[in-house]
Batch of 4 targets.
Target 1
Amino acid sequence: FKQAETSFNEALRIDPAFVAASAGKAELLEWQGEYSQGMSLLQPLLAAQTDDPAVLTVYARLLRRTGDAGKGMDVLQPLAESGRVSGAPLRQVRFTLGDLSDQLRRYDEAFCWYKLARQYRPNTFSAAAHRRFIDDLLLRFDSKSTQQLNRSGNNSTQPIFIVGMPRSGTSLTEQILAAHPDVFAAGERSHIGRIVQQIAPLRNPTRAVLARHAHAYLNGLGDSSRAAQRFTDKMPLNFLYLGWIAQLFPKARIVWCRRDPRDTGLSCFTTNFIDPALAFSDELEDIALYSNSCVELMAHWQNTLDLTIFELQYESLVREPESILRELLSVLEL
């Protein structure tokens, strides 16, 4: 956030009339919960009766945050129906209208907006290709083969990989663990996926290759993580790569975040994901398929890998936070 704020401030210093920078900074302030500051930043543009889609969208989002969803609808619906917005900006407008309608308890209307938002691009997710990938993992890392795979020899106990479906509580889990003085929160790191791209073509990477990648991964965390007893990597889709993680970091701990699949599925469908890896969220059927494959694969990892895997049920965490967190910290040896 700090780097983004610095960049927006510099852009506005160079050109105070740079509308996109004002909209971007206001959006950043919304993410940080600084709603009144975001409103104040947009006021000169609104007073000048701007029709910029980015400004109107973030303004409507701020109105929702401050309890005035009805006014947000009045601002944004004419823009959505004007025909002058298309592509990604129209997608964001429709998602925002979905959120506004939801807050107004107009649930059928909200669902229609979310469906419209997801129609602006072709669905790039292939259920058949995903099924083949899962089947390949089950075969490659079966119980017999797993025992014969090389390991890196890196016995670091620092890594905690927080995995599961998106919107299943991974961010909440990392935020809670980050409050512990011995934990460094590294956020969503894409590094494991990139490492897998390099070593997956090798049927059984050598110890030296694995050690090199494990060392590079740890070095990429920077100095802040080295003093910590544990660090978290909360890239949810790392659940796909636990077979390779077991080879890279045999002493790593895994926290599998689980949540009622209906809540997870709805949350995925109503969230404007940009990452192409989350294209499955464009269709309800694909969300169900992906969610089921996550459960299937995680059950397989539990049966075949020596990794410590802790199941963290979101509903239990919310209902009984103290007892669940004590159990979690015990497993993580914190």
Target 2
Amino acid sequence: MASERMPRLVLTMGDPSGIGPEIIVKALCDPMVRKMAHCLIVGNAAIFQQAAKLVEANLPVRSVSGFDDPAFDPDGLNVLDAVELDLRRWTPQKPNEESGRAAIRAIEVATQLVLQGAADALVTAPIHKAAAHQAGLPFAGHTEFLAALCGVTETRLMLVCDELRVIHVTGHMALLYALAALTPERIIKTVELALPVLSWLGFDHPRIAVAALNPHAGEEGAFGDEEERLLRPAVERLRASGLEVSGPVPADSVFWQAWQGAFDLVVALYHDQGHIPVKVLAFDRAVNVTAGLPIVRTSPDHGVALDIAWQNRARATSLMAAIRWAVMMAKHRALGRSG
């Protein structure tokens, strides 16, 4: 990213039956967001015309070919109209194969723009997994699709808010399976994948804590042996590599300690262990960051919200936070490259 220009973000429209289009319009109507970055929406221009009308946006919708198009308006809703959508087969709040196909195409186009260097970061609106699968998506979800497009095999979900940063060793799987998937190697790999993201967040020498699995970190084996058998070996190997890693730290205190500034990152062992503290602190401000990708990717920490979609009820708070964090990460990443 050239130092003399504003960061360039591409925003995918998400599933057009959900809240993606309207929260994008609402976010970009905020002048503070437009001052942070030049934003290019990858989607369907007709959908965004409707979304702008729904929310009574005071910005024009412009179809552009990219950031360098003379028609690009920093104070407009600039849409790369790269997604075909048969509006006769599209219904608000009712995702289907048509809307799923549109969401997939937006992700493909936007990701390529970032990989090619035309944009500095990717911000994705929510997709509807079932609709995407109906349209032929051969991956479990959004993140797995992005990993394939970027040519990587392992990623991790990180949640970021002003108070906490949490990365998850396991993701969307039943708790029984998540526990079975825990190994020292997987914990170590999780930390390794977190390091570039932490650097993009401004933490070049991060203080990392690994959360314990059992009450009181197992109480020396009284409440389980996973801490001694799985977690402590991983922590010791990470320390031996020169990283500042603590743990296993009892899960009932580690997030509070991080909130108080003792740690820059908490490694959570399973989905809810990491999600609950972040959502209690920052339910509508938390942002998903994908660790393991060669690009900056953020997304709001919510789904398509079909129950309120296309009613002008959806709030853009989390998407605006995703844009803010993407800008910050893109700037730090550019500084690292230039340094």
Target 3
Amino acid sequence: MRPATVYDVARAAGVSHMTVSRYLRGTVKTRPETAARIDQAVADLGYRVNRTARALASPVPRRLAALVFDLHESGPSQIVQGAAQHAREAGWSFDLVPIVDERDVTVTQALASLDPHGLAGVLVIGPTVAIRRALEGEDVKLPVFWVDEDLDPVDAPPLSLNGQGAALAAAHLVELGHRRVVHVGGPAGWRASENRERANEVVLRRAGLDASVVARGDWTARSGWAAADAVLDSGATGVTVANDQMALGLMAGLAASGARVPDDVSIVGFDDIPDAAYLMPALTTVRLDYVDQGKRRLQGLLDQITGGDEKFTPHGGTIELVVRDSTRRL
């Protein structure tokens, strides 16, 4: 059976093939009733857009670029994976430009190095504060998309996925009976770090507990190891950690000092990196679907370029607590 064509969709929807083509490209406004008929015909016929043909026919550059901070970290690398996958499926090429530090000049130089005549838009993945500061006042010639995550409220449930995940982690330790819970935070300037820390504080204070940040790291296992002494000095029985890499470093540092996880200290990470399930003990952590986040962000850039309104939105997604062996009930 031959695959359905745009002409088949047009006949089934009772419109011209040009109307179908323009609607599917998102280049024109379409009446709701017409859009509904086209959507139904697409679904009934199992029609799939020929991305290669679309790319060859388009007068708009079909190349995107991503400026990425901390590409070696699990979250950013998975976001890039999702963005690249969605770009490929939509018929766009995708260039990657790593950013080695957070200085304003580095971001602006990276943007200036991109050829605006060969690109349709730029996706930026990195610390909110640094990106906003670098882009303020810049006359950028290309569409630039980045997720400007707001700080969560201090007196209400968190709105961000980062905050919601951190709230799950802290609540898990409280439910297990821990009364002395501390937090090992991530670097300043990252909304992810700030909202995870803020949500941890909100949950603990609502439970009538003190909320302390005993150390801050830079997302690396080395910085988690360095936090071990501060955790032990705090007398905590439970620790929430800003990411899994720091958590595994903390576990190693505690073991080197003779402390046992979870017998002496329960630990909850964040990210659910691939290695988390195979640590000793397996790490209880928060799973955020970063690949989906990458797809959503890439679609946000495409919508900015084309004015379209696809099913993906740059905000939203799923978050869940994955309970393993690094936490125990008191």
Target 4
Amino acid sequence: MTAEPAGGGRPSTKGKHRMMRRRGLLGSGLALAAPPLASAQGFPSRPIRLVVTFPPGGTTDILARQLQPKMSELFGQPVVVENRSGASGAIGTVEIARSAPDGHTFGMVISTVISSTLISRQPYDALRDLTPIQLLARVADILVVPMSSPIRTVSDLVEHAKRNPGLTYGSPGIGTSVHIAGAMFALAAGVEMTHVPYRGGGPALTDLVSGHLNLMFGNASSTLPFVRDGQLRAIAVTSAQRAPYLPNVPTVAESGLPGVVIDEWYAFVGPAGIPRPIVERLNAGLNSIVTQPAERARLLDMGAEVVAGSADDFARFMREEVDKIGRVVRAADIRME
């Protein structure tokens, strides 16, 4: 698109002709529609770079690599996974945000892409600097306690916490959904609990099994094996509905605390400014992959419930998350230590 003259200077005769032509195109609607449509028809024209904001071996990386072969097949170009980890996903997110907005670079992020910006200053704005492409899946947090604990229900936990202020709950770090879930629970129940951040969910779960922590709102993907092996007792899940993989475990909401609904989510985003037709092409392609019965079942076995939906749905969800998580962060005075 032709640039406008700078400052307040008068455009040249040639510049006037360009401006008149631009106005004519805008009036006909072709200036906005034609360039993105043309780029979408030829997309993708080269290999796609899929930036994963966490290191190899984690849930985010596993999900990305699980989908990679089908993405390459569907889009007709190699999809190359590139791990850019560090700073709770911020390094990879900045890499995505600074990429060319042509759809050939996008990435997988998790819910900390929102919560991190609410807790500390980040080098990106999740709503301004990123293009929502697809909300892939939600992973509930499971409220778990050691098998030796007398706590068996949410009511038991609330009563126990009121009699014993300062019950400890672990998390993979400040601002994770596991941390936010614990803070949200404490606020809703009117109890005081002590957050113990770890460098990863694995060490926190290990300490919980051994009784060094009182409870945890563990990410389902990492916590389910401990529940299935009988090492931890599942009390409730933080999702809006009961989890298909734990159908007999109630939600926190149905157990008397309706405001406690939170998931860790995984999603695809690109840099701001990707043409709408390309966003829709990516969204439709990704949806067609993850909604296949076999793929949906494989993700569910990991504790991830497929969401899919449109890019607009995801954009609306991100705005709602900023409001919801922001209220918890402010009320609980959560800050980076």
